[in-house]
Design a protein that fits this description.
By secondary structure, this protein is of the alpha/beta class. It folds into two domains: about 240 residues, Aspartate Aminotransferase, domain 2 (3-Layer(aba) Sandwich), CATH 3.40.640; about 120 residues, Alpha-Beta Complex (Aspartate Aminotransferase, domain 1). Helices cover about 40% and strands about 10% of the residues. The strands form two sheets. A seven-stranded mixed sheet has the order 1-7-6-5-4-2-3, with helices on both faces. Strand 2, helix 4 and strand 3 form a beta-alpha-beta unit. About 50% of the residues are buried.
Length: about 375
């Protein structure tokens, strides 16, 4: 079966991983610190704090800005993974979904309905395409004048490693290195910010509020056992095993993106004139190659029988039992688009023969279903 997504590693990464294993330091240590420095440099920010997952990064971003579960409303898109919503209840916030933009599948700033209780927005750069941050920040500014406080803007860049300017136009940004992301590390995440105080708060929070990491206390001729706990926190720091994988991926991220972009261009050229098919607009990362097609489920089944895995990114959260009460406003674009979405395999491990098989099989499946439907 040709996988929808799949991580790869070069020899440098494998050697780095072996180096970490042989070092005896498997927890948060020098490789994690190196990855943080290189990541901050790549993004163009002052601070990068490596954590255990993108979900942890979202949670920490809220906790650092709103300590003590202050309540209020969190707004995000329904077309995303549940992490962007679940961090709301974890921080005492009720969640409201706003509709998506027809082309980008990102949250539509014009669809957001602010109120006096709105405290934060998580703008997901869906599939590697950027939310219209200029329009979002303009709406946030208008809201601040109306209600007397500024809403926190979190950029979720889990799909955007690294789309140019991603992570630079919100108040804080988070990233994911989960096993099938563009920069995979098994799991892991990052928080990036230019705010010194917020960065230090988050760094302390990743190790249960302890003000200095074990590695920092172990450096030098003598282990310094004494430490202070400065506030609450959680155990969510990255370890050097994950950091080695992530550092290896960061070294070759441009190569990875180039391969995914070429697959994307190949697909778009092959599919753009097929009946009932709408190819996606360009994505720098092509985290998912998600097009629209009539008879989605039937076509997916045909591809599966031909040894090609497909997926749906995403089933909207407002259709999930737990989140049905968060759809307080109409979501017409989401409701119209998602039943047609189908994700095809796209990753840097795809061979030319596999790509050709996917193209030929999808084309044949579309025509077969089109004729069967009597169109």
């Amino acid at each position: 079966m040709i996988k929808v997504l799949g991580p790869t590693a070069d020899q440098w990464t494998k050697d780095k991983l072996t180096e970490v294993i042989n070092s005896g330091w498997w927890g948060q240590g020098p490789v994690t610190a190196e990855f943080e420095r290189e990541f901050a440099k790549r993004i163009g920010v002052k601070h990068a704090i490596a954590v255990s997952s993108g979900t942890a990064a979202l949670d920490l971003a809220l906790k650092a800005h709103f300590p003590g579960n202050q309540g209020g409303e969190l707004i995000t898109t329904p077309m995303t993974f549940v992490a962007d919503a679940i961090v709301g209840p974890w921080n005492g916030m009720r969640v409201t979904f706003a509709d998506i933009h027809r082309e980008t599948l990102c949250i539509d700033p014009e669809a957001i309905e602010f109120n006096k209780d709105t405290r934060a927005i998580i703008a997901v750069h869906s599939h590697g395409r950027l939310t219209n941050m200029a329009a979002l920040n303009r709406r946030v500014g208008i809201n601040a004048e109306k209600f007397g406080h500024r809403v926190l803007v979190i950029e979720d860049c889990a799909h955007a490693m690294h789309t140019p300017t991603a992570g630079l136009h919100g108040d804080i940004a988070i990233w994911s290195f989960q096993a099938v992301k563009t920069l995979p590390a098994g799991d892991g995440g990052m928080v990036t910010t230019n705010n010194d105080a917020i960065a230090q708060t988050i760094r302390n929070m990743t190790w249960l509020g302890i003000e200095k990491s074990t590695y920092a206390r172990a450096r030098g001729a003598k282990y310094t056992w004494d430490y202070d706990i400065v506030h609450d926190g959680q155990k969510s720091y990255m370890n050097d095993i994950n950091a080695a994988l992530a550092l290896g991926g960061l070294r070759r991220i441009d190569e990875i993106l180039d391969k995914r972009q070429r697959i994307q261009a190949n697909y778009n050229a092959a599919f753009h004139e097929l009946p009932g098919v709408r190819v996606p607009i360009w994505s720098h990362t092509c985290q998912y190659y998600t097009l629209e097609t009539e008879n989605r489920d039937a076509i997916g089944e045909i591809l599966s029988k031909a040894g090609i895995a497909t997926s749906v990114h995403f089933k909207p959260l407002h259709l999930m039992t737990y989140w049905k009460d968060s759809a307080r406003n109409p979501l017409p674009v989401t409701d119209k688009v998602w039943p047609k979405l189908l994700s095809l395999p796209v990753h840097d491990g795809l061979t030319p023969d596999e790509q050709a098989h996917i193209v030929e099989t999808f084309q044949a499946a579309v025509w077969e279903e089109w004729k069967r439907s009597g169109r």
